[in-house]
């Protein structure tokens, strides 16, 4: 909901300062791209400890397994 208020305020401020509608659309596109990339990086940093924990868990599990001899 907060993002919607930010978007409305962003568009209103651009229109009030005299930016054309084409400029507003371009600014919205650029802002959306930056917010998308920022959200992706935030999600990666948020999930990074769990990803590391999963890798360590798989590594421990595989090191505990006996190496089986495959016969063909």
Please describe what this structure looks like:
It is rod-shaped and about 75 Å long. The protein contains two helices and no strands. With 72 residues, it is an all-alpha fold. The protein starts with a helix and ends in an 8-residue tail after the last helix. 82% of the residues lie in helices and 0% in strands. Pfam families: Phageshock_PspG. The chain crosses the membrane at residues 7-34, 40-61. This is Envelope stress response protein PspG. InterPro entries: Phageshock_PspG.
Layout of helices and strands, plus pairs?
Layout: H1 2-16, H2 21-64
Helix pairs in contact: 1-2
Protein name: Envelope stress response protein PspG
Transmembrane segments: 7-34, 40-61
Keywords: Membrane, Transmembrane, Transmembrane helix
- Shape, principal axes of CA atoms: rod-shaped
**Could you say which structural class the secondary elements and strand pairing correspond to?**
mainly alpha
| Overall helicity | over 70%
Low-confidence stretches: none
| Tally of alpha and pi helices | 2
Distance between the termini: 61 Å
Radius of gyration: 24 Å
The domain tally reads 1
Biggest beta-sheet profile: none
Number of strands: 0
What oligomeric assembly is this protein in?
A: single chain
Helix/strand order, N-terminal first: HH
Average pLDDT confidence is 88
Q: Which percent range describes the beta-strand content?
A: under 5%
